[in-house]
Design brief:
Number of domains: 2
Bound molecules: 6-O-phosphono-alpha-D-fructofuranose
Number of helices: 7
Largest sheet: 8 strands, mixed
CATH topology of the largest domain: Fructose-1,6-Bisphosphatase, Chain A, domain 1
Number of strands: 17
Strand order of the largest sheet: 4-3-5-6-7-8-9-10
Radius of gyration: 19 Å
Structural class: alpha+beta
CATH class of the largest domain: Alpha Beta
Distance between the termini: 53 Å
Helix content: 25-40%
C-alpha cells in the first residue's frame, strides 16, 4: 500500500472531523515543516556551530541555547504569513506574539515549547517540540488572556521527537496517530494509528534526586514502587528518566508507563516545574486520547483554568490505574 503522507492524512481526516478546516490543515502542515527544519538544525549540531548557550535567559530564568532561539524563530517564521493564526505563545517569549498588522489574521492560537529538553542537546540526547492549538476569539484584538483556555478547549495538540528517527505525534480529538520523517524527502508519513496506553504498567519516570522534596503522597506512592514484589504492589518496577518530557512521554505512549513531575518543596513557590499551556495541556490531551489519565494529583490537568501564560503545574500522567492510585493517595 502507498505510504500515507501527512498532507493526505489531514485531507482524509477532514472528511470525518468537522474541526479540521483548511486553515487548521495549513497550520498543522506549517508546524510539521518547522519541525523538519528544527530537526535538520539539530542534526547539524556542532558542525553548524549551533550548540551551546545563546548568552541570554528566557522568561523562565533559564539560560537559552542557540537552538532554543533558532527553533522558536523557525516556528514564528512558519506561521507569521500563513493567515491561519491570530497569535502565538512560546516558552521562549515573555509575552504573547501577536501578528504584525500587515499580516493576515486567522482563527487559531498556537502555544508551543520550541525545544523541550534543550539541556540535553549538548549531550546528544533526544529532545522535542511540543505544540497546542486553540481557537482565537472572533475579534481583531487578541490578548494573552485569550490563550488562558482549559486544556479541553484544544483543537489539536502534538509533538515532534528528534531521536534516532524524527517522529511527529498528533491528536485532533479522535485518537493519537504517529508520523515518521522520510529525511530524504523532508516529509512525514503515517506509521502508526491509534496509540493506546495499557491501563497497568511496570515502568515509571521521575527525577529521583528530588525525592526528599516531594509531598507525602508522592513519597508514599514511589516508596511502594521501589518496594517491588516484596511490597504491597507485589511486582517489581523499572525506572527511566531521560530529562526530556517529550522523550519520556513518547516512551509511555509507545509502550506504557507513568511520568511524574510533582510539585515539591523546591518548585512549590513557582507552582511546579512544567508549564501548563505548552507542556502539560498538550501532553495531557495526547495521553487521555490514548486511554491514559493526566492529573496534578488533586485534579485532572485538562480541567484546570489557566491563570497565566507561563503558569507551572504538577504533572502525573500515563497508565490509568497508576494515576487513579496516585489521586486516591492525594485524597487520603
Ligand atoms: P529535571 C526539560 O528542561 C524539562 O522542562 C522537561 O522536558 C523535563 O521532563 C524536565 O524539565 C527535566 O527536569 O529536573 O530532571 O532536569
Amino acid at each position: 500500500m502507498s505510504q500515507i503522507s501527512l498532507a493526505r492524512y489531514l485531507r482524509e481526516q477532514q472528511r470525518v472531523l468537522p474541526v479540521l478546516d483548511d486553515a487548521l490543515i495549513r497550520l498543522l502542515e506549517q508546524v510539521a515543516q518547522a519541525c523538519v527544519g528544527i530537526g535538520q538544525a539539530l542534526g547539524q549540531g556542532a558542525l553548524a556551530g549551533l550548540l551551546g548557550a545563546a548568552g541570554q535567559d528566557n522568561v523562565q530564568g533559564e539560560a537559552q541555547k542557540k537552538l532554543d532561539v533558532l527553533a522558536n524563530d523557525l516556528l514564528i517564521d512558519a506561521h507569521v504569513w500563513g493567515g491561519h493564526l491570530a497569535a502565538m505563545a512560546s516558552e521562549e517569549m515573555d509575552d504573547l506574539y501577536t501578528l504584525p498588522d500587515e499580516m493576515p489574521r486567522g482563527d487559531y492560537l498556537l502555544a508551543f515549547d520550541p525545544l523541550d529538553g534543550s539541556s540535553n542537546i549538548d549531550v546528544n540526547v533526544s529532545v522535542g517540540t511540543i505544540f497546542s492549538v486553540l481557537r482565537a476569539p472572533q475579534r481583531q484584538a487578541v490578548s494573552a488572556a485569550d490563550m488562558l483556555q482549559t486544556g479541553r478547549a484544544q483543537v489539536a495538540a502534538g509533538y515532534a521527537i528528534y531521536g534516532p528517527s524524527t517522529q511527529w505525534v498528533l491528536t485532533l480529538g479522535a485518537g493519537v496517530d504517529v508520523f515518521t520523517l522520510d529525511r530524504s524527502l523532508g516529509q512525514f508519513f503515517l506509521t502508526e494509528r491509534g496509540l493506546r496506553i495499557p491501563e497497568q504498567t511496570q515502568e515509571f519516570a521521575i527525577n529521583m534526586s528530588n525525592q526528599r522534596f516531594w509531598e507525602a503522597p508522592v513519597q508514599r506512592y514511589v516508596a511502594e514502587l521501589l518496594a517491588g514484589r516484596e511490597g504491597v504492589r507485589g511486582k517489581d518496577f523499572n525506572m527511566r528518566w531521560v530529562g526530556s518530557m517529550v522523550a519520556d512521554v513518547h516512551r509511555l505512549l509507545t509502550r506504557g508507563g507513568l511520568f511524574m513531575y510533582p510539585i515539591d518543596a523546591k518548585t512549590r513557590a513557582k507552582g511546579g516545574r512544567l508549564r501548563l499551556l505548552y507542556e502539560a495541556n498538550p501532553m495531557a490531551w495526547l495521553v487521555e486520547q490514548a486511554g491514559g489519565l493526566a492529573s496534578t494529583g488533586y485534579e485532572r490537568i485538562l480541567d484546570l483554568s489557566p491563570q497565566a501564560l507561563h503558569q507551572r503545574v504538577a504533572v502525573m500522567l500515563g497508565a490509568r490505574e497508576e494515576v487513579l492510585r496516585l489521586e486516591d493517595m492525594h485524597r487520603d
